[in-house]
Structure formats: C-alpha cells, structure tokens
Specification:
Elements: E1 8-11, H1 15-27, E2 31-37, H2 44-48, E3 51-56, H3 67-77, E4 81-83, H4 93-101, E5 105-106, H5 111-118, H6 120-129, H7 145-155, E6 159-163, E7 172-175, H8 181-196, E8 201-205, E9 211-219, E10 225-237, E11 240-246, H9 253-269, E12 274-282, E13 288-294, H10 301-309, H11 312-321, E14 337-344, E15 346-347, E16 353-354, E17 361-363, E18 370-374, E19 389-397, H12 400-413, E20 415-417, H13 423-431, H14 433-436, H15 444-447, H16 449-452, H17 457-484, H18 495-503
Bound molecules: adenosine-5'-diphosphate.
Residues 135, 160, 166-170, 172, 204, 206-207, 210, 212, 236, 239, 279, 281, 291-292, 442 line the site of adenosine-5'-diphosphate.
C-alpha cells in the first residue's frame, strides 16, 4: 500500500483536545485548521491553529456537530484530513463515511468498524464470536417489560439495563430489586431516546465491586495490532472517570498479559485501524469481561503516552498516512507510573454543578514529571455550552508512591480563581487511604464521600498559612531587589493593605 503524507489537518473539535492534536501536527510539520463556534472566538485552539474558520452558533448542534459546514471548511482550506478528537463527531460512522466520499482522510477507523463497535449489542455479539469474555447478558435488544423480567430472572439480580447506543454513562440503570425493573426500564429508555435518538436497550449482569480496566490498542492497515497496556479508571462519579492511572494497582503480570491478548483479538475482530480502547469490567477476583470499545482517542490517553513513551496522535496520523506500525508488541514496555486528574469547572459543594465563568487568575503547575493539557487563560470565559473540563493534569513518577506525591505537589501549585474547580476534591482523593493503598473500585467516591467532600476548614487554614509564607517571601524579594538596585529600603507601613492587594491576585 502506498504511503500518502498528510499536509493539512482540520481538527473538528475544541478545547484541550484540539490543542493537543495540533501540537503533534506542529511537531510533524503538518498545517492545522481550527473550526470554532460563535462562543469560541477567543478560544486558545483558534489562536493555536495556522488557520481558523467560524462554523456557526454556540450550540454544538449548530457548529461542532454540523457535518456539512465542517466538510465545506476542510475543502475550502485545502485540508486533506480531519481529526475528530473525542466527543462530538468522533464516533459518528456517517461522518467518517462522508469524509471518505468527499476525498478527505478521516483520522480514525473505517465507518464499518465505528458502526459495529458503536452499537453495543452488535459489539457484544462480535466479541462473543471472537472468543473474548463478555459480561453475561443479552445479545438482542430487549423490547418489553415481561421479556425483561424473564431475562433478569435468568441472569439474576443485580443487573444493569443499558442503552445500545450508550455513552457518557447515559441510558444506564442499576437494578437491585425486582420492584425496580419497570421504572428502570422506562427511565433508561427515555434517557436513551433523548440522548441518542435510539432507545434500544440490553441487559447485563452487574459485576460486584467492579474495576474499570481498559487497554489501549493501535492497529495499522496491514493487520498489525499491538496493545499499549492498561489504564485503571475506577475512580468514577456517576459512571464518569475522574482520576486514571497506569499501571493498574491490581493487575498481576499474568492477568495483564491475558487481557492484552484479548484486547488485540477484539481489535482484530473489528478489522480495526488506528487508535482504540477496549474497556473491561473486572471483579475483585480479577475475572474480567468486555464492556465496550471506544473507537477514538480517549480523554485519558496521556498516561499511556507517558508510561509507554508513544505519541498516540502521531501514530494515528501515521497509520492514516498508510505507514506500518513502527514497533512490535515485544518492543513496548511500561516504565514508571502515571496518574491523570481531570480538572473541571464545577462546584463540588453543590453536587458538582458546572460552574462556567471568567478565569480571573491561573497558575498552572510545572516541574519534573508534570504535564498539563489545558486551554484556558487569564481573562478567558468558559462557555456554558460545552463540557466544563478545564484541563487534564498528568504526572509521572518512577513508582506509584512518587507519582501520588507528585500529583499532590502539582495540585497544590495549581491555582485558579474566578470559577469553582475540582482541584481541592482531587487533592483529597490523593490523600484518601484507599487510593494511596491502591485498594479501590468504582464505589470509591461514594464510600469515601464524607472525607472527600468535608468542608475544607483545615485546607483553608493551610492555604492561609501558605499565602502568608508566600507574602513574606515576596516582601523579602522586593526588599532585596531594592537593596540590589542601590535604593534605600522603604519600610512598608501599610502591610495590611499591601497583603490584601497581594492576595487579591489569587
Ligand atoms: P458508557 O459508554 O456510557 O460510558 P460503559 O459501558 O462504558 O458506559 O460503563 C460506564 C461505567 O459504568 C463503567 O466504567 C462501570 O463503572 C459502570 N458499569 C457499566 N456496566 C457495568 C456492569 N455490568 N457492572 C458493574 N458496573 C458497570
């Protein structure tokens, strides 16, 4: 197969992921095209790209989900490929096919693979065919209540009722008692219809004390597939990931290698091309089952990049260009430990309500082993229309203990004012004994909520002390500067006023 280099990529996304993709393009000498909605005129991804085009109104249905406009911009700007990022059109097989038809290269798998794996019922069937262990449950959609009751009795309570088109934890209900079946079915069906326009449901066994462990895979156009090990994503709130780490604290080398082999088999069964993720659910005895496949780059991909030493976006682009994978399975190793924290503009004291607004001050953490993938800046207003993710903080350490201490240090350095954030909550997670001991499952936040959400009196005091110490250091630096400049030291008489002025910057 001939290799055709990509010269210009349109990034059909916004926020941190748009910038993250453009960074790799820049390193590869590839030109970038940004698209933006009316709400994103002053967004960083617009400034970062070589060219930027407005594609419509703020609601994503009018802009980031508008295939016609995005394709028209790609053609007008002379882009030869489209990277969809995550969310928006990234797992939309119709869009991938449209790109193909318009002679644009879609940086992702084929429309057929997206379609097969995007429908969770057809993905389950395919995995069973391929011999991959799947959560016990139905392989056809469940149509009525009587049928559901019969199936649930066979599987045994508790069960999960899930939307076949599901994503983002939507259209999913845990059923513990028989009396909940009818109402859960109704709720799941109506949520699925609203969120995905498809109300097909299926039922699977609820795995007790579950761990979410996923494997990153890469497949080229020549049938070569490798896995890049696992990510442990069991720190979740409402079935959504909050903190991820790799390696998983619970896997044994033997289980890791078996899961890796199944992940490769799953990708091969889907005739996959590009970067993808096979998600497994695992019980406390390390029995694991296929949950779903994400046919795109994941939010949490940087921890894999750090521990395996591979730029996943570059590999996605090279695969699309037609290059074979530059490594074999035996070339890939896990080195050290990485953790990612998702920083959201949310009010943790108010049920994690999104808290968009203007950033009045931001100090991002730096230093050894720290990566911060963000997109906001001082004076930037986070729009209300999109996800409230501000950034992803990723740290690396030689050991898990070092990575945790580094994450605590980086979170301590991270200062954002103007909007409420989840930073303090994440610091608390790092301090929780269950997390520190690596003894946690998807119930971790619920189990530790009292500690995680306790009002921050102690933290507030510590912060005040830290502020006073920083102020003292600032004053002494100021005075040293004056001395060095040869001017006389002027004693600060109104120190309270100056302290107030100083602290108002934070
Ligand atoms: P979505 O695509 O909406 O994110 P997933 O199928 O990936 O849905 O599940 C999201 C999360 O829900 C999992 O990480 C896990 O915490 C929980 N979950 C899903 N299915 C099960 C199950 N059968 N047993 C226990 N927990 C589950």
């Amino acid at each position: 197969m001939e290799q055709k280099p990509i010269k210009k990529v349109l990034v059909a996304n916004r926020g941190e992921i748009a910038i993250r993709i453009m960074r790799s393009c820049r390193e590869m000498g590839i030109q970038t095209v940004a698209v933006f909605s009316d709400a994103d005129r002053s967004s960083m991804h617009v400034r970062y790209a070589n060219e930027a085009y407005n594609i419509g109104l703020a609601p994503s249905s009018e802009s980031y989900l508008n295939m016609d406009k995005i394709i028209a911009v790609a053609k007008k700007s002379g882009a030869d490929a489209i990277h969809p990022g995550y969310g928006f059109l990234s797992e939309n097989s119709v869009f991938a096919r449209r790109c193909q038809e318009e002679g644009l290269r879609f940086i992702g798998p084929s429309p057929e693979s997206i379609q097969m794996m995007g429908d969770k019922i057809s993905a389950r069937k395919k995995m069973i065919e391929a011999g991959v262990p799947v959560v016990p449950g139905t392989t056809e959609k469940v149509t009525n209540e009587l049928e559901a009751i019969k199936i649930i009795k066979e599987i045994g309570l508790p069960v999960m009722i899930k939307a076949s088109a599901g994503g983002g934890g939507k259209g999913m209900r845990l059923v513990k008692k028989e009396s909940q079946i009818a109402s859960s079915l109704r709720a799941a069906r109506s949520e699925a219809k609203t969120a995905f326009g498809d109300d097909s449901l299926y039922i699977e066994k609820y795995i007790d004390s579950p761990h979410h462990v996923e494997f990153q895979i890469l497949s080229d156009k020549y049938g070569n597939t490798v896995h890049l090990f696992e990510r442990e994503c069991s720190v979740q709130r409402r079935h959504q990931k909050v903190v991820e780490e790799t390696p998983s604290p619970i896997l044994t080398p033997e289980v890791r290698s078996r899961m890796g082999e199944y992940a490769v088999a799953a990708a091969n069964a889907a005739k996959y091309e590009g970067a993808g993720t096979i998600e497994f659910i695992m019980d406390s005895n390390l029995n694991f089952y296929f949950l779903e496949m994400n046919t795109r780059l994941q939010v949490e991909h940087p921890i894999t990049e750090r521990v395996v030493g591979v730029d996943l976006v570059k590999e996605q682009i090279r695969i699309t260009e037609g290059f074979p994978l530059p490594f074999r399975q035996e070339d890939l190793k896990q080195s050290g430990h990485a953790i990612e924290c998702r920083i959201y503009a949310e009010d943790t004291d108010n049920n994690f309500m999104p808290n968009p607004g203007t950033i009045t001050h931001i100090t991002e953490p730096y230093g050894l082993g720290v990566r911060c993938d963000g997109y906001v800046y001082e004076g930037y207003s986070i729009p209300i229309y999109y996800d409230s993710l501000i950034s992803k903080l990723i740290v690396w350490g030689r050991t898990r203990e070092e990575a945790i201490e580094r994450m605590r240090r980086a979170l301590y350095e991270y200062k954002i004012t103007g909007v409420k954030t989840t930073i303090r909550f994440l610091e608390r997670i790092m301090d929780t004994p269950d997390f520190r001991n690596g003894e946690y499952n998807t119930h971790f936040i619920e189990k530790n909520s009292e500690f995680l959400l306790a009002d921050g009196i102690c933290d507030k005091k510590c912060e005040d002390i830290a502020m006073i110490a920083t102020y003292a250091e600032y004053i002494s630096r100021l005075e040293n500067k004056k001395t060095n400049a040869g001017s006389p030291i002027k004693k600060e008489t109104n120190w309270k006023g100056q302290f107030r002025r100083f602290t108002s910057r934070f």
